[in-house]
Specification:
2 copies of one chain form a homodimer. In chain A, a hairpin with a 3-residue loop joins strand 3 and strand 4. Chain A has 3 domains: about 90 residues, D-Maltodextrin-Binding Protein, domain 2 (3-Layer(aba) Sandwich); about 80 residues, Periplasmic binding protein-like II (D-Maltodextrin-Binding Protein, domain 2, 3-Layer(aba) Sandwich), CATH 3.40.190; about 100 residues, Alpha-Beta Plaits, CATH 3.30.70. Chain A is built from 10 helices and 15 strands. In chain A, the strands form 3 sheets. In chain A, strands 1, 2, 3, 4, 5 and 11 form a 6-stranded mixed beta sheet that branches. Chain A has a 5-stranded mixed beta sheet with strand order 8-7-9-6-10. With about 290 residues, chain A is α/β, with parallel strands linked by helices. In chain A, about 30% of the residues lie in helices and about 30% in strands. The radius of gyration of chain A is 21 Å and the shape is elongated. The interface between A and B is large, with 46 and 46 residues.
């Protein structure tokens, strides 16, 4: 069983993939379409792709691959907290640091720590956090630090000077696991699908959502993507609780099929235990 | 009356702004937040921001500014077809071109033309299409071409070698006009709003959409964005036909207010005549 992920090793995608497989069964690819092709052609048994971040929102490349480009199914979901670490070569102290390097996104996500603990230090953009850590960990410059994952520090021999330097501690990325088949029912499942409504009939979308409400199926997500035809033609994406083989879910799917000009069921899979992840990140502090 | 847009001059944003004002009344800013601040502080009377593209989808920066950061209203909408032009310095012929430069996005959008008419020609990335046209138009190298707008060719003195070199002719970007007040009713209006539902009650979203269906108000768009709290908490964004001062719309807004933990009405504004734009781009060819 091999699991494909977006490389290089030491990224959040690898952290997610490590929730599915041990590191010797992971294989890195360099793009989202490559991950899909890897599973379609048997180079890997499954692939882990980010689909949503709690601050940035949907990962539209992944949604568009699912809608337009592959018959692969969603066989699982994973959630990984976005935790950033300040990493140097061994022996470098905070006072020595003159340059911090990372992907541009972590700079925005660690602004408070950088302002407070590394004021005025030059920030240099890198192509990936893992690349930045690798470069810094093997540098003998003595004045460089990177922002990256704990896993990258471990892989490339860096020293962690500070942990959890991100401004927002509840920032989480959700991943989907794509495979040739989805997952059997476990009693605590979710189903994801995409559809287009027939023409622009007033209330057409509402009529479809009403079918879920009638069966008291809780929708956990609704998203829209352009159909890539004309402006204003959308594909809707819905996640809801239940397995496609559950009786109530099967009834809804039967009823909405005739109301849709396109219906693609991405699959049913066990729900990730987000509540326990939240308790571990944010003990005793409800966000709302 | 001054209209702010995302510079430099010669971009699609300037084309959209020119539908609102003549060029002497336009003022360029360098970021989306700067456009918002310009109107909030009186540096400009209104600002034009892209909100949606028919292939790429929502412009999340604009949505998040509207949800979280400004009390400005949407006072209008505009749609501009994405038309790309091959531009050189005067006197350069197609056979002379050895290098094409542009923003990375147009290279992807003009792949067919480039493969057919400029096979094997080196592609060099630039920060903006307008910057690429400016550089090429003033170059005396004799072997360079840029991909950009007709407006950029005019502004920077370039020569158009080929027009409409984009692969997809129905690619359109929609812009919103932000101002301190929204627009009075015209009889053919749209309203945009954002809301959060109270807790995760099954069917809570459906109950809200049902209120629109009861009054047969046609929803033209539904979108979700993360609330930036915990994963799975969303802000929903809806566009629908009608003005907020119309009786039916006012009734729906009253009824949904109590079901929402947040309700923000972005404004009502005249509907852009998309059908006539479509007829001009794509005569006699329905897309669906």
């Amino acid at each position: 069983m091999t699991t494909a992920f977006l490389g290089p090793p030491g990224t959040f995608s690898e952290e997610a993939a490590l929730l599915r497989a041990t590191s010797e069964n992971l294989v890195a690819f360099s793009s989202f379409p490559a991950l899909v092709s890897a599973v379609e052609t048997g180079l890997a048994d499954e692939a882990v792709l980010p689909i949503e971040n709690s601050i940035e929102g949907a990962v539209s490349t992944t949604l568009d691959l699912l809608i337009h480009e592959t018959a692969l199914r969603i066989a699982g979901e994973l959630a990984v907290p976005v935790r950033h670490f300040l990493i140097t070569a061994p022996g470098v102290r905070l006072a020595d640091v003159r340059v911090v390097t990372s992907h541009p996104q972590p700079f925005g996500q660690c602004r408070r720590f950088l302002d407070r603990c590394l004021p005025g230090v030059e920030q240099v953009a890198a192509l990936s956090t893992a690349g930045a850590v690798q470069e810094v960990a093997s540098s003998d410059d003595g004045h460089r630090a990177a922002i990256g994952t704990a896993r990258a520090a471990e892989l490339y021999g860096g020293t962690i000077l500070a942990h959890d330097i991100q401004d927002v501690h509840t920032n989480v990325t959700r991943f989907v696991v794509l495979a040739s088949e989805d997952a059997p029912p476990t009693g605590d499942d979710k189903t994801s699908l995409a559809f287009r409504v027939r023409e622009n009939v007033p209330g057409a979308l509402h009529d479809i959502l009403a079918e879920f409400a009638v069966e008291t199926l809780q929708m956990t997500k609704i998203e829209s993507r352009p159909s890539k035809g004309w402006l204003g033609d959308y594909v809707f994406l819905i996640d809801f609780e239940g397995h496609r083989r559950d009786e109530r879910v099967a009834r809804v799917l039967d009823r909405i099929r005739e109301r849709c000009s396109m219906l693609k069921i991405f699959g049913s899979y066990p729900r990730f235990p987000l509540d326990s992840l939240r308790a571990s990140i944010d003990p005793g502090q409800p966000i709302d």
